[in-house]
Design a protein that fits this description.
With 111 residues, this protein is α+β, with helices and mostly antiparallel strands. Helices cover 46% and strands 27% of the residues. It is built from 3 helices and 3 strands; from the N terminus they run H-E-E-H-H-E. It has a 3-stranded antiparallel β-sheet with strand order 2-1-3. The chain starts with a helix and ends with a strand.
C-alpha cells in the first residue's frame, strides 16, 4: 500500500471507531469502560504481504479480557463490512489485496 492508501485506511478506522463506539455504548448500556484494564486495538492487514501497517486504538477499554475479545470480534466485523461503503474499498480491492481486520486486546495499567 502506498502512503495515500495508508491515510485512507487510518481515516476509515477513525470514522468507524466513532460509529462503533456510539453503537456499542448505546446498545449495551454497558458501564465497562471504567476502571480500564484492556484496550481494543484494530489492525487493517493485507494477507498478501502479511503486513498490518495500520493500527488504530479503537477507544474501547474493558475490565476483562473476555469482554474485550467479545466486543473485538463484533467491531472488527462491522468495520470490515463498512469498508465497501467507500469507493476505494470495493470488493475487488478487498479481494485482490486480501484485506482483513485483526484486533488485539492489550492489557493496560489501571488508573
Amino acid at each position: 500500500m502506498d502512503a495515500q492508501s495508508h491515510y485512507k485506511v487510518y481515516d476509515v478506522l477513525e470514522k468507524f471507531k466513532a460509529l462503533c463506539m456510539a453503537l456499542y455504548c448505546r446498545s449495551s448500556g454497558n458501564s465497562r469502560f471504567v476502571p480500564m484494564k484492556y484496550m481494543l486495538i484494530l489492525y487493517m492487514c493485507s494477507m498478501i504481504t502479511g503486513q498490518c501497517p495500520n493500527n488504530s486504538i479503537a477507544g474501547y477499554q474493558f475490565t476483562s479480557h473476555y469482554d474485550c475479545v467479545n466486543a473485538g470480534y463484533a467491531i472488527a466485523q462491522k468495520t470490515f463490512r463498512n469498508l465497501e461503503e467507500l469507493e476505494e474499498w470495493d470488493q475487488d480491492y478487498i479481494n485482490n489485496n486480501k484485506i482483513v481486520i485483526k484486533f488485539e486486546c492489550r492489557q493496560i495499567n489501571s488508573i
